[in-house]
Amino acid sequence: MAQLVLNGYDSYLTEIESTSSTPLLRPTTPIPHLPPGVSGLLSSISIANIKTLPRLHWPLPAARAGWHVLLGPNASGKTAVLRAIAAVLLPGNELGALRQDWRRWVTLGGTNASATITVGTTDAALGWQIDGETLTKTGHTYDGFSAAYGPFRRFTGGDSEYQREFSAHARLLRHLSLFSERVALSAALDWLKDLEFRLAKGMPEGALAGLVKRFINETGLLPGGARLERVDPNGVWFRDANGAEVPADDLSDGYRAVLSLALDLLRHLAVGRTPEDLFTEHDQQLTVAVEGVVIIDEIDAHLHPTWQQSVGPWFVKRFPRVQFIVATHSAIVCQSADSVLLLPTPGTHDEPRMLTETELLRLRYGDLIDAYGTGVFGEGVTRSPESRVKLARLAALNTLELERPLSDDERAEQLALREILPSTAFVDEIAGDAS
Predict the structure, then answer these.
(1) Structural domains in the chain?
(2) Is 202 exposed, middle or buried (0-12, 13-18, 19+ CB in 10 A)?
């Protein structure tokens, strides 16, 4: 059976006894003890022998907040990396509640794996090690705020019985959807209804209801003028771009993916905080004042390209003290990136690498052709095979025109191809094989 253990503190008791005249009563079972907890933003992530990745090192610029992106083909290990980071941030007792078979985390054929994170400017280290069936937490514990979200972000469709099994593990619940597809973020809607109830009863906690509504409606989160309309005991209602009132459960997948993420994150950040602690306001614009680390898998899921472009800037602007670590396949999402780590194509045995400064600048400031031209999204993905055949034919016609007048049929074909291939209308040669 897979196990999780914490570093013992027998040496700690020996040290205390040496300076005390009163002998300590030693427990028959060692009490777990770890070095002091740390908080802050992450400065580096190092992983060894996880799934398909023999090694990985991700230096995060100046341990600062922002938008840090993990890229890679399907099956390159993006989700495994995010889970490994979340496992470092979780305390041992919460992580143990996952009941994972740690052997399945280790690279095929191996028995050992590890992950280490450094935090803040002091580079305090914390992590875990897997040896066979056992995962051991190492270094400091993380006392800061963290949360993690898997790709299935929705209000309904989860397994409520499964989620209830973790009701005593509040920190794990903030990360649970990253580890299981059986989790829905329905508690975010219940939270809104509870705030509205407390507001109606004149309870102090109800003051947060109006601020959350403003945060959703006045910060540009929802496209097309959609807005949170009202909350009542029967549900949470939105006004869509066509003016229709729609229950949250009936919104499109894109709206539910973003709203469930934003509301669930606010719900967890609000625990133990007053509205004044949660939000700051400048020029009548609300931002979240809390520091933390938030992990999001497939942030682009269900989002139209225009929303893929705005989602990063919105989260960074509205959560300015949060370090977002996101996985994506979208070049548009990378336009907001402060750092990008690229995982290799499975089977190539290449190393994970940081994008070069030029590559990162092309993703941030170039157009999509510039971004795809870096090669980090694969080769030959900007055109379909049929398009390359048409491009080769257009190049041949353009070259032929330099040698002799085109026939009427050739001229008509050339003009038709130029109309559908305007960016290469006057090409006379192409790189590579267009067949």
Answers:
(1) 1-5+36-183+291-380 (3.40.50.300), 185-281 (no CATH), 385-424 (no CATH)
(2) exposed
